[in-house]
Specification:
single chain, alpha+beta, 2,3-Dihydroxybiphenyl 1,2-Dioxygenase, domain 1, Nuclear Transport Factor 2, Chain: A, 3 domains, 7-stranded mixed β-sheet, about 30% strand
Length: about 325
């Protein structure tokens, strides 16, 4: 084991390896209109070599091609490029389940031919997820891929359960294989925000057809949603949420947005404290249209069961509610 990995292990065991969980800023993201990462762009010295590696070795698919496109002096100046660099050719690669990879090849490239060192500003790498890292390493080695070390399993801390290893492309760029089929350590605390993972998307995609809900199943989940909001016991409420709500469910109210079980649970708990004894019930039959359901509800005490009325709109995916839009009627 390298000294670097020994240091990582010692630090993790000591409990000092902390990876800060990012706090979702939904408001800012909505204002910016950003949904996620579309692609990662990298420059390569030989397009044919790069395409062969990503398609023939890693098994991805090259989809689109642009160029060669001549670059004018203004473009080069604005993009901090050498004036003598020639035309650019661009190919977009579909990299399995995840962001695309955009490859750039510049003819007569006058830019630096030296890769950034590991501690240089601008140094980067792409990590590819695999469910079986040993199998992936064995296969890539059979294709002549050079690995910089052996796979390393994180023993504790936020990344406990993650195995990773670096390898090189034929042109010397550093890439990574990473695997955490049973999740990472930080997930045990049920954080509000979970890091995106291609394994979750792949699992969701493969299970969607088998988890397509019938109208009756959706109505049953909506009924359980009412039970969640009427449940006073925290543990029982959490168990019910696991059945109905996706981990990353987003609840949108006119005044706030709640993400995940914890934030919704906190809101329900606060509601019980402010209006003790009140109960939710539906006013009429639950409407279902494909994977969308509509619930008209009322909330109040026995003498005034309709003190507050409104409507909840659900979006179901892969067997659970992923979106919940709450509409509260104006006070009578």
């Amino acid at each position: 084991m390298s000294d670097f990995k020994k240091q990582i292990k010692a630090t993790a065991v000591a409990g000092a390896l902390l990876v800060s969980a990012s706090v979702s800023n939904v408001g800012a993201q909505q204002k910016a209109g950003i949904l996620g990462v579309d692609h990662v762009g990298i420059n390569v010295p030989d397009m044919n070599q790069a395409v062969h590696f990503f398609t023939g070795v890693l098994g991805f698919s090259a989809v689109t091609t642009l160029g060669p496109i001549p670059l004018d002096d203004t473009w080069k100046k604005n993009n901090h490029m050498q004036s003598g660099t020639g035309a650019v050719t661009i190919k977009m690669v579909r990299a399995g389940t995840g962001a695309n990879i955009e490859l750039f090849e510049y003819k007569n490239n006058k830019g630096s031919q030296q890769f950034p060192g590991g501690d240089d500003i601008g140094a980067s790498h792409i990590a590819f997820y695999t469910n079986d890292i040993k199998q992936s390493v064995t296969f890539l080695k059979s294709k002549g891929v050079q690995f910089l070390d052996e796979p390393f399993l994180m023993p504790s801390g936020d990344t406990e359960g993650e195995t990773w290893v670096y390898f090189l492309t034929p042109w010397g760029a550093k890439m990574e294989l990473v695997s955490y089929p049973n999740g990472k350590g930080y997930e045990k605390n049920k954080p509000t925000t979970i890091l995106w993972s291609p394994k979750d998307v792949a699992s969701s995609t493969s299970e969607t057809s088998s988890k397509t809900l019938s109208e009756e199943e959706i109505r049953s989940l909506v009924e359980t949603h009412l039970a969640i909001w009427n449940e006073n016991d925290l543990k029982k409420r959490e168990a019910l949420m696991e059945k109905v709500y996706a981990e990353a469910i987003e609840m949108v109210d006119s005044h706030f947005i709640a993400n995940g079980h914890k934030e919704i649970n906190d809101f329900v708990e606060d509601l019980h404290k402010k209006t003790p004894g009140s109960k939710f019930s539906h006013i009429k039959a639950i409407d279902v249209n494909h994977n969308i359901a509509r619930l008209f509800w009322q909330n109040g005490i026995p003498g005034k069961p309709d003190a507050v009325t409104g409507m909840d709109l659900f979006v179901f995916e892969n067997g659970k509610a992923v979106k919940l839009y709450v509409f509260v009627d104006s006070k009578k």
